[in-house]
C-alpha cells in the first residue's frame, strides 16, 4: 500500500500558522499519518478528506468552534482533549488561540479491520476525553520522534489498537464484532514464525505477517496473542534478542554488526533491550560466554 501523507489530510497542516515539529513522512506508514506541531489561531473550511482525523490537544485550555452559523458549537478544550472528524465530511473550524497538537489521520480500511470488517460511523467530537486514545497517540508520537525501523511492527500494533478504540468508544453505528478468543492453528503459527526468522533484520509490517496466516491484521493480532500470550511486536523482539545472544556467545563479530544483523537499529538499541529484558549488556554477555 502507498504511504499516507499530506494529500490524505483535511488541509489543516497546510495553514500558514502551522509550525511542524515532526511527522511520519518517509517512514512507510500506510494506514496512519501522524504529525506533531504548533498551530496559530485561524478560521477555515475544509473539504471532506478520505481519512478519519483525531487531534490531541497537548496544551490548553483553548476555545475551538466547529460548524457555522446556528449549526456551530464552541467549547473550551483543556490539554488532553480530543477533536474527532470522521472521513468524508466537510469541516468548518475556528481555533481561538495558539495550540500544541498531535494529529493522526487513519484510513477507513484500518477502522473497518478493527471492527471485523464491518463499517463504522464515527461521531464528531469536540473536547472529548479518552485516556487510552491519548496514550496511544503519545506513544506513536514518541516513536516518530526517535524512529527506529525495527519499530514498524510496534507501530502497526498501536494503529490497530487506536482504530479499535475509536470503533468501540466513538462509533455511532458500529456493528460490534463477536469476541474472538481462538488462536492460530499450528500450521499458521509455524508459518508466521518462519517468516519472522527469515526477515529478522528487516522492518516487518503486521500486514505481511497477517497475509502469511491468511487473516486480516486485526484478526491476526488477536489470534497471535491468544496463541502466544504476546503481541507480534513483543514476540519478534524476543526472537531478535535470542538471535543476538547466540551470535554474541558463539561468534566474534563486533557488537555494532550483531545488532543490525538481528533486527536492531544500532548497538545502543540492542543494549537497551537486552538490559531491560535480561538485566545485562551485550559486552557483559559476551564476556560471560
The gist of it:
The chain has 289 residues and is α+β, with helices and mostly antiparallel strands.
Write a structural description:
- The protein is an alpha+beta fold.
- Helix content is 41%, strand content 20%.
- The strands form 2 sheets. It has a 6-stranded antiparallel β-sheet with strand order 1-2-9-4-7-10. The protein has a 4-stranded antiparallel β-sheet with strand order 3-8-5-6, with no helix packed on it.
- Helix 1 crosses helix 3 and helix 2 (131-145) runs antiparallel to helix 3.
- 36% of the residues are buried.
User: Quick one: biggest sheet?
Assistant: 6 strands, antiparallel
String of helices and strands: EEEEEEEEEHEHHHHHHHHH
Give the N-terminus to C-terminus distance in angstroms. 44 Å
Helical proportion, percent range:
40-55%
What secondary-structure arrangement, pairings included, does this model have?
Layout: E1 19-23, E2 32-39, E3 42-46, E4 51-57, E5 62-66, E6 73-77, E7 82-85, E8 91-95, E9 99-107, H1 108-114, E10 125-128, H2 131-145, H3 152-170, H4 186-198, H5 206-212, H6 217-228, H7 232-250, H8 255-261, H9 267-278, H10 282-288
Antiparallel strand pairs: 1-2, 2-9, 3-8, 4-7, 4-9, 5-6, 5-8, 7-10
Helix pairs in contact: 1-3, 2-3, 3-7, 5-6, 7-10
Amino acid at each position: 500500500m502507498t504511504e499516507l501523507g499530506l494529500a490524505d489530510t483535511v488541509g489543516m497542516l497546510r495553514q500558514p500558522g502551522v509550525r511542524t515539529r515532526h511527522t511520519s513522512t518517509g517512514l512507510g506508514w500506510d494506514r496512519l499519518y501522524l504529525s506533531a506541531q504548533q498551530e496559530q489561531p485561524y478560521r477555515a473550511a475544509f473539504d471532506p478528506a478520505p481519512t478519519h482525523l483525531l487531534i490531541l490537544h497537548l496544551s490548553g485550555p483553548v476555545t475551538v468552534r466547529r460548524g457555522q452559523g446556528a449549526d456551530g458549537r464552541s467549547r473550551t478544550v483543556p490539554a488532553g482533549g480530543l477533536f474527532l472528524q470522521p472521513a468524508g465530511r466537510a469541516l468548518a473550524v475556528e481555533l481561538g488561540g495558539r495550540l500544541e497538537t498531535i494529529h493522526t489521520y487513519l484510513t477507513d480500511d484500518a477502522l473497518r479491520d478493527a471492527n471485523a470488517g464491518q463499517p463504522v460511523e464515527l461521531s464528531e467530537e469536540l473536547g472529548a476525553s479518552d485516556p487510552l486514545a491519548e496514550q496511544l497517540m503519545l506513544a506513536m508520537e514518541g516513536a516518530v520522534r526517535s524512529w527506529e525501523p525495527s519499530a514498524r511492527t510496534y507501530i502497526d500494533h498501536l494503529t490497530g489498537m487506536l482504530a479499535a478504540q475509536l470503533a468501540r468508544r466513538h462509533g455511532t453505528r458500529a456493528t460490534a464484532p463477536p469476541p474472538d478468543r481462538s488462536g492460530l492453528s499450528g500450521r499458521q503459527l509455524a508459518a508466521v514464525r518462519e517468516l519472522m526468522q527469515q526477515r529478522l533484520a528487516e522492518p516487518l509490517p503486521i500486514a505481511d505477517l497477517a497475509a502469511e496466516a491468511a487473516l486480516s491484521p486485526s484478526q491476526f493480532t488477536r489470534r497471535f496473542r491468544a496463541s502466544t500470550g504476546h503481541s507480534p511486536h513483543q514476540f519478534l523482539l524476543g526472537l531478535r534478542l535470542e538471535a543476538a545472544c547466540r551470535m554474541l556467545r558463539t561468534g566474534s563479530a563486533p557488537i555494532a554488526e550483531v545488532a543490525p544483523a538481528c533486527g536492531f537499529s544500532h548497538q545502543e538499541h540492542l543494549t537497551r533491550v537486552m538490559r531491560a529484558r535480561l538485566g545485562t549488556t551485550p559486552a557483559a554477555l559476551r564476556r560471560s560466554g
